[in-house]
Amino acid sequence: MSIQSQSNPITISHLNDMKTRGEKIVCLTAYDATFSAIESLNGVEVILVGDSLGMILQGHDSTLPVTMEDIIYHLANVKRTNRGSLIMADMPFMSYASEEQTLENAASLMRAGANCVKLEGTAWIGKSTELLAERGIPVCAHMGLTPQSVNRIGGYIVQGRDPNKAEELIQEAKLLENSGASILLLECVPRELAKTICESVEIPVIGIGAGPDVDGQIMVIYDLIGITQMEKAPKFVKNFLLENNSIESAIDGYVKAVKEKTFPGAEHSFE
Ligand code: KIV
Fold first, then answer.
1. Which of 23, 130, 187, 248 is catalytic?
2. pTM of the predicted model as reported, rounded to 2 decimal places
């Protein structure tokens, strides 16, 4: 059963305690008031207002066209009906390219209701992370497959299979923790690498396509209920509506599966 409520909202300290206790952290995206209410009332500890909205809601072929105004609009809707989940908001593409921009845009997200901001990148986001953390803004550093860099990476492909790249990711995770990141998010990395990173840092590590051995899981809500424009859903996606008869019970099924460590399984993970 969910521990959060409006009077006892989830904080970064709760997430740290959960890592220490070995209790899995459940995260899910939401972009509107209805899903925000259902998710927060059904035990989702972290709601992400993700720039995935650019592809899912707006129909773009990447997250690059998403603007600060877009995130703020959806964040405000999510905030209105949230019942105690920690709200994380994505900083969109090029909204943290300079120090001044980083501070100004992160402040706008916090004023609009975020409890934490998410930045994608490698060691180069260390400086922004430090600037924000010093000023009291919790940062989630999104590593591995970083969709805002899809044009440089060359596609939505698993990261860290090469041993040199894997070692680089481990060192970057430590650097970002030392820079003040409160959370790491690992997307599409081999299971063993994700486990090593999770054991190398003290802050919570949330995974998507990173296997079961991290501190928590995140999924895109539309994937969880099987609504997709893709011909084939990514390997790490599970449609929980197939084994549940309502959206609410599908979300509940996801929460239970993450808590009970039955999701993700080997079939949702990369070797
Ligand atoms: O934007 C988003 O929804 C994300 C998740 C896929 C982690 O970054």
1. 187
2. 0.97
